[in-house]
Amino acid sequence: MLSRVLTRGAAAVSITAAIAAVGSSFLYYRWFRPSGSSPAGSMAAAHAKALTSPYPGSQVQRRPVPPEKISWAADWPEYDPVDYTAPYVLTNPPWADPLLGSEGFSPQFNALDGAVQRESLQGTYSVVGGVPRNPVGRTGVKGRGLLGRWGPNHAADPLITRWKQDSDGRRVTDKGTGKPILQFVAIQRKDCGQWAIPGGMVDPGELVSATLHREFCEEALNSLEGSGDQSESEKKIQELFSQEHLLIYRGYVDDPRNTDNSWMETQAVNYHDETGHLLSQIRLEAGDDAGKVQWVDVSGDCSLYANHARFIHILAQKRGAHW
To answer: Which residues contact 125 (CB under 8 A, 6 or more apart)?
Structure first.
């Protein structure tokens, strides 16, 4: 559920940690680096929404971070990010960590910490003075912001797709590219009004496959209401989820909630109905944290939350669809 998402200064980093930070950053932004662009420009493109102000749900202004200073490897002794953790996160809801230094709280970073997954999909991240560092770079805010976990906050995003068809059941192709048009299920988030891929946080001890199914049913089928029609739709979705699927993306998410010490990571998985028969039998209904839900044509004009448009672009390339 998206609601689960609503969820210090340190000594100089060692040479080993610095190398790890640079390596982690490279692993992410090389996916997004345009041909001929500079490393600083690439880093800024891959780490743009995590630098926006004001911070979501607040009037907090981030410390401006120029492109050449995003990487932790860049010397910036005067860097002084704003310290912000949302008031609700500080009330210690079940999905959130306590403050670092709290009695009985000794998180094991870069490891499976009990049922809480604190390993990053990016690899090993730096921990400086007992505080984890965003593997991509500086954000202008320290603390946790709206996120519950110190370090990586793991999510899962199900991409449910079908081919667009005309009234006779034939695939619709784009006149410009000559490629078939893919459609995916999108939700409009209640918290910010932006369109997004359904998805949410992986609960402690939960399998990612279970999260993908649960989140889609809650947000796109309104399964929490438990109506008879939606129960039948859930059965069809379960059948779709039991078939072959395609991993689209696995790693860091350029999310406006990210901070220097807490960040979003996800696994975006595509479940595709080649004939459209299964998905024609489900009734979309917005639920949980989704205000609206609908089928959206995949194209280069898609404007989506965080870097979800990037996931859709990768999906179109892998499926040979119009973009």
So the answer is: 20, 21, 24, 109, 110, 132, 133, 134, 135, 151, 152
- Residue pair 266/199 in contact (Cβ under 8 Å)? The answer is yes
Instruction: List the single range of 100-114, 173-187, 271-285 with lowest mean pLDDT.
Output: 271-285
Residue type, 196: A
Query: Contact at 8 Å (CB) between 179 and 173?
Result: yes
Please check whether residue 277 is in contact with residue 176, taking contact to mean a CB–CB distance below 8 angstroms: no
Asked whether the predicted pLDDT for residue 316 surpasses 90, the reply is: yes
- Across 66-80, b (16+ Cβ under 10 Å) vs e yields ebebbbbebeeeebe
Cβ pair 43, 50 in contact under 8 A:
no
All domains in the chain, ordered by first residue: 2-153 (no CATH), 154-319 (3.90.79.10)
Q: Are 63 and 82 in contact (CB under 8 A)?
A: yes
Per-residue model confidence as pLDDT tens digits over 160-205: 999 999 999 999 999 999 999 999 999 898 888 889 898 889 999 9
Judge if the upstream peptide bond of residue 77 is cis by omega within 30 degrees of 0.
no
| pLDDT value for 7 | 37
CA distance 237 to 271: 9
Mean pLDDT value across residues 265-276: 94
